[in-house]
Amino acid sequence: MPDTSGASGSTPETHVIDFRAAERLLAARDPRGAVKLLDAVIAAHPENTAARLLRARAFFAAAQLRPAELEFTVVLEREPDNAYAHFALARTYERQGRHDQARRHFRLAAALDPRPDFVRAARFDPPAGSGG
């Protein structure tokens, strides 16, 4: 007999499918569609940091900056060493005109992961003799 206890019939497997579909929607420039799928995933699994990070990215892509900021902040509370989340939060602050907060998170991102784009955004000077 099938389980009819859930209104949507969602299972852990459908949440994985929804997460992957949300990734594809975001890549296809449909961030609002991605957010809709991720809302159900996060409601069922609020501890899922990967889903929260993806939803934060989708909010950012949809220019929903306050929800993006809140989600990136949740991710950083759970993973303070997540360089990408610092970088993305900095971009969110930058788009809101909050440049001091943006600079702080750009620098944290660059300190955690010295990728060239993170370092450029942090406006660090290259080390002497590095040729860059």
Automatic annotation (TrEMBL):
InterPro entries in UniProt: TPR-like_helical_dom_sf (IPR011990), TPR_2 (IPR013105), TPR_rpt (IPR019734)
Q: Name one Pfam family in it.
A: TPR_19
On the tree of life, the source organism's domain of life is Bacteria
Per the UniProt entry, the signal peptide is none
What protein am I looking at?
A: Tetratricopeptide repeat protein
Q: Which UniProt keywords apply?
A: Repeat, TPR repeat
TPR repeat residues: 83-116
Which organism encodes this protein?
A: Streptomyces fragilis
Keyword Acetylation in the entry? The reply is no
